[in-house]
Amino acid sequence: MQRYKHIVVVGAGSAGLLAGLTFQQVIPDGKVTIVRSPKIPVIGVGESTTPAMPQYLHKSLNIDVLEFTQQVDPVWKMGNRFYFGDQSRKYFDYSFQPAMEQTAPELRKNVMYYLLEGDMRGFCLASGMMEQCRAPFFRDPQGKLTNWSSFGYHIDNQKFLAYLEKIALKRGVEIKEADVCDVRQAPNGDITHLVFEGGGEIEADFFVDCSGFHGRLIKKVYDVPFVSYGDNLYCDRAVIGSWERDHPIEPFTTSISMKHGWCWNIELQDRVTRGYVHSSAFCSEDEAIEELKAMTPQLGDDVRAISFPSGRLERHWVNNVVAIGNSSGFVEPIEATALLVVTDQLKYVSKALLDSYGDVPDMMRDRECERVRAVWDDICDFIVAHYKFNKHFDTPFWKQCRSELSLGSATEFYEYYKEVGPSTLSSRFVCRDSVFGFDGYMNVLLGLKAETNRPPKMMDQDWNQWKSYAARVKQNSLQALTTEQAIHALSGDVKQGALVEGKDFA
Ligand SMILES: Cc1cc2nc3c(=O)[nH]c(=O)nc-3n(C[C@H](O)[C@H](O)[C@H](O)COP(=O)(O)OP(=O)(O)OC[C@H]3O[C@@H](n4cnc5c(N)ncnc54)[C@H](O)[C@@H]3O)c2cc1C
Fold first, then answer.
1. Cα separations (Å) of 52 from 4, 55, 100, 345?
2. Does any ligand 1 atom lie closer than 6 A to the CB of residue 310?
3. Does the CB atom of residue 130 touch ligand 1 within 6 A?
């Protein structure tokens, strides 16, 4: 890296700390400073992740799995459980293990053909582990712990940030408390200095705007237009609370249909957080709190409200400033994708800095902006499908979702599904770069029981075969440890250094 000697990150939420750690690796001989406001708190949500987060932490940032497990107390997440669909089944699983095209010795057809009519749980090992409340850890024949792939984390935001901060400081990242109130710019528009409230400034070659929804640099200095998804995703607020754990730890995020939106359960080791994501156009904050409390009498007094915009910037990278995290875009949290985009952006921007030796050509920046726009739009379209096909309630909110929402880039895929039914051939209609891919889209369409004119024709023999398959999946999932057993075993085994990484870890 020839040019960059000093990179400054604004903000110390999850995005800012991950950015600090990433760019310290990009310029090991240079300096990285994180500037955070002593007055503006972090948003304090973002506790559910996809498998991209363990991969990024442990593979890209080389954060030790066992130390992380001991200090952050994560809960392993095998997928999402949705109380969505047409009510003919109570819930369906969205598994992190791609299973739709999976074949099995017992089965005549790929797994997906059995899911429209049948149960949509226990249909692959990850889904079986969700059903049996298992974590992705097994004992090998020698009694050593091995872990299994395709899991995300549930992480307490405070513990996560405290840990990332500790590692960042240890690796030489500087953290400075100051409010950025102005900037100084070069004639070409590059920022050269950040100016602090009350005096003082800092000079750097490259700036990363991780200031959350404030977008202190990208919006306030460069005035980049924000493209709202509000016409297609109506939810814009969440009321959030938690309670002390009163049931065994479930290895998944639960999403439950509500009158004016949906609500999450995120399982942490000591407590459960629940947030009702709703549309302020359809219900007041008081009504949302009332509905949340009615379904959760055990909720503590710590209920708080957060408003959020769903949308993205027209460009997240301008001159020598790149926005990462909520400053760059956000699509409501039903698939917990925000941190996935953070790690995705960090990977590409750091690669761009390395490949361009710190002198980023316009074309590289432009293509990266295009790519990130497509990532956000893809996430938006995928999430819209959750609303469009959910039939749990007939309130004005849900009626409008069903009649008005546009599936955007997913339209062709859905139309094919409607006409032809579930078919592996439809994989060619899902954009190759889609974060969710064919497997994700098919999992959700089948789970929601989106309308199709040709449901698969199944015979009694198929269902007998499915029974044998499901019994084997169940048996295999029961070999895994429960989350409680895994936590206990890990703290014991760590001392003996006996964790064996599974080949396809994370
Ligand atoms: C309701 C809701 C639920 C969510 N759930 C999930 C989820 O389950 N999974 C997921 O991946 N994501 C989720 N998200 C997104 C999540 O919030 C972000 O991924 C994550 O918290 C990262 O936030 P951030 O670091 O961009 O911003 P923040 O945490 O808001 O941090 C902003 C930082 O910028 C600093 N700052 C701001 N202005 C200035 C200034 N002028 N000078 C200096 N410093 C400044 C602040 O001090 C702070 O340190 C959710 C979001 C919402 C709204």
1. 28, 5, 20, 12
2. no
3. no
Assess whether pLDDT exceeds 60 at residue 156: yes
237-307 topology per CATH: D-Amino Acid Oxidase; Chain A, domain 2 (3.30.9)
Ligand 1 within 6 A of 13 CB? yes
Strand 75-77 versus strand 152-154 pairing type = antiparallel
Q: Is 359 helix (H, G, I), strand (E, B) or coil?
A: coil
Is 117's C-beta closer than 6 angstroms to any atom of ligand 1?
A: no
Confirm or reject: Cβ of 16 under 6 Å from ligand 1: yes
Going from the Cα of 414 to the center of ligand 1, the distance in angstroms, rounded, reads: 33
Site to substitute for ligand 1 among 34, 40, 379, most atoms within 8 A of C-beta: 40
Return d(Cα 168, Cα 155) in angstroms, integer: 18
Q: Which amino acid is at 348?
A: Y
pTM for this entry: 0.96
pLDDT given for residue 46 in this prediction: 85
The pLDDT-based confidence of 167 (bands split at 50, 70, 90) is: very high
Taking the domains of the chain in order of start, what are their residue ranges? Answer: 6-72+154-227+313-360, 98-146+380-475, 237-307
Rounded average pLDDT over 203-209: 97
The helix or strand, by DSSP H or E, that contains position 70, with its residue range, turns out to be helix 65-72
More confident residue, 428 or 277: 277
How far, in Å, is the centroid of ligand 1 from the Cα of 196?
21
Closest atom of ligand 1 to CA, residue 212 = 27
The tokens describing 99, both together, are 């299973």
pLDDT over 50 (residue 497): no
What pLDDT shows up at residue 150? 82
Q: What is the pLDDT of residues 442-480, one digit of tens each?
A: 999 999 999 999 999 999 999 999 999 999 999 999 999
Distance CA 401, CA 33 (A): 44
Q: For residue 443, count other CB atoms closer than 10 A to its CB.
A: 27
CB-ligand 1 contact for 152 (6 Å cutoff): no
User: Each residue of 364-386: pLDDT tens digit?
Assistant: 999 999 999 999 999 999 999 99
Same fold: 6-72+154-227+313-360 with 237-307? no
Question: Atom of ligand 1 at shortest distance to CA of 41?
Answer: 47
Which residues are CB-neighbours of 480 under 8 A, at least 6 positions away? 129, 132, 134, 135, 136, 137, 138, 148
Looking at domain 6-72+154-227+313-360, which of 3.40.190.10, 3.50.50.60, 3.40.50.720, 1.20.120.790 is its CATH number?
A: 3.50.50.60
pLDDT reported for residue 499: 52
Residue 180 CB less than 6 A away from ligand 1: yes
Instruction: Report which ligand 1 atom has the smallest distance to the Cα of 240.
Output: 1
Output the residue whose Cα is nearest ligand 1's atom 16. Answer: 46
Residue whose CA is at the smallest distance from ligand 1 atom 7:
46
